[in-house]
Model the fold of this input.
Amino acid sequence: MAGPLNAKVIMAKCSNTKKTFGMRIEQRGGDWVRTWAFPLDERRAKHEGFDANTVSGSMNADGEYPGCPHCGSDGFVQCGCGKIGCAGGVGNHGNYAKYTCPWCGSRCDLSAAEIFDVSGGGY
Ligand SMILES: [Zn+2]
Ligand SMILES: [Zn+2]
Done:
């Protein structure tokens, strides 16, 4: 049996619509796994303290992970500012992709390797 469940909700923003959502993640064998995503009001998230939750490293998507609740994207990008956005707004330009962070507005070019778990998204 698995040990005590280590799970938390982190805040993310849809890079398509700039709307916030909560991403529920769970630690399994040292890795974080994304298990759920749901629309989340920024004010409520602050109230619950979700905005203070951070995570680093890779987060795999569980088979049940529904994707971004606003645009359906499975992938996510972590900006240099530390905030997470869904990969729905990533524009694909051949070998690289352009991402605009919905939190701080900075633009960056990503190689495909930097976009986590973009599976089945047509990339
Ligand atoms: Zn999205
Ligand atoms: Zn940013």
Q: What stands out?
A: The first strand starts at residue 7 and ends at 13. The chain is about 5% helix and 40% strand. The chain has one domain: 7-114.
